[in-house]
């Protein structure tokens, strides 16, 4: 298994939901798993489509197929199916991203005493 690849049990859970399977209208796709793993690799690694490793095939065809699946709702149906029994393996909240204003964090409210620029204090 590659670092960003699917385990066999994960693949078995989604393979019958994808277009191009045997008995499905259209051409039978022999590389659905490789394609799905290419998409996962691209998003998990945070790389542009052009930087996909050659083992996933031509990046242009991968991107074209990804876009087609997005337009026809394949990804949406897949995510709907997976969200029913989510294992939250990759769910995380990083506190460095969730920022709060100082007043919402319980800091003392001490209004700063400021004066307008150019105005002298009267004694």
Structure description:
With 123 residues, the chain is an all-alpha fold. It has a domain at 8-84. Helices cover 37% and strands 0% of the residues. It has four helices and no strands. It is elongated, with a radius of gyration of 25 Å.
Task: Name the features.
123 residues, mainly alpha, 0% strand, elongated
Broad structural category: mainly alpha
User: How many DSSP helices?
Assistant: 4
Described by the principal axes of the CA atoms, the overall outline is: elongated
Q: How much of the sequence is in beta strands?
A: under 5%
* First-residue to last-residue Cα separation: 77 Å
Order of helices and strands: HHHH
Give the low-pLDDT segments.
none
Would you count the extended β strands for me? 0
Radius of gyration: 25 Å
**Percent range of helical residues:** 25-40%
Give the topology, please.
Elements: H1 8-14, H2 32-45, H3 59-72, H4 74-84
Task: Summarize the structure in short.
The chain has 123 residues and is mainly alpha-helical.
């Amino acid at each position: 298994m590659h670092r960003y690849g699917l385990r066999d049990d994960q693949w078995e859970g989604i393979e019958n939901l994808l277009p191009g399977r045997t008995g499905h209208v259209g051409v039978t796709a022999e590389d659905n798993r490789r394609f799905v793993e290419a998409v996962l690799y691209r998003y998990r690694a945070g790389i542009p489509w052009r930087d996909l490793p050659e083992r996933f095939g031509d990046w242009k065809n991968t991107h074209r197929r990804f876009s087609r699946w997005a337009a026809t709702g394949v990804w949406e149906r897949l995510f709907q199916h997976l969200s029913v029994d989510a294992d939250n393996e990759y769910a995380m909240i990083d506190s460095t991203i969730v920022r709060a204003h100082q007043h919402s964090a319980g800091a003392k409210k001490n209004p700063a005493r400021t004066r307008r620029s150019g105005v002298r204090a009267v004694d």
